[in-house]
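We give this protein:

***
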Amino acid sequence: MKKIEEPNGDLWELIPPTSVPEKFTTKDQRLDLTYYLARTSRTEPIPFATEIIEDETMQEGEEKVTVDGWTGERQIITYYDQSGKQTKEEERVIKHMRTKIIHRGVKNATTAVEKQPVKYTTRTVEDPTMMLGERKSGTTRTIW
C-alpha cells in the first residue's frame, strides 16, 4: 500500500482504486488516486510542578530556588480509518518535565495558635480538714 509521510508526522495512505484500466490508450489518460489521512501528530507542553520545602536554616521570608524546573513535551498520535473515524490515540513523552524546588525559610517564624474554648463545671465541696473561711480552688476539665 502506498503511503506518504509528512515531516510533521502526518501519514496519508492510498485508497486502492476500484477499477484500473489494463492499458492506457492515450498519453493524457490518468488514473485518479485517492488518499486518506491515516495518522495525525501533535505536540503539547507538560507543565512543571513546584515543590516548596520548609527550611529551618533560612530566615522567615527568604526563598531560594535549588532546582530550576522546565516544561516537558508530549506527542499525541491519532489514527483514523478510511471513513475518517478515529480508531485510536497514543501518547508518548518526548521531553520529561522537571520539578522546580524552592526552599522557603521558617526560622524564627511565629506559628498561629488556634484557641478553643474549654468547657468546665464548678462545684463546692466541704472539706473538714480546712480551717473555717479558708478557700481552695481547682478545676476539672472535660476535653472533647
In short: The beta strands are 3-5, 11-15, 34-46, 50-59, 63-67, 72-80, 86-95, 100-107, 119-121, 140-142. The chain has a mean pLDDT of 80. Residues 68 and 100 are 5 Å apart (CA to CA). The two ends are 77 Å apart (CA to CA).
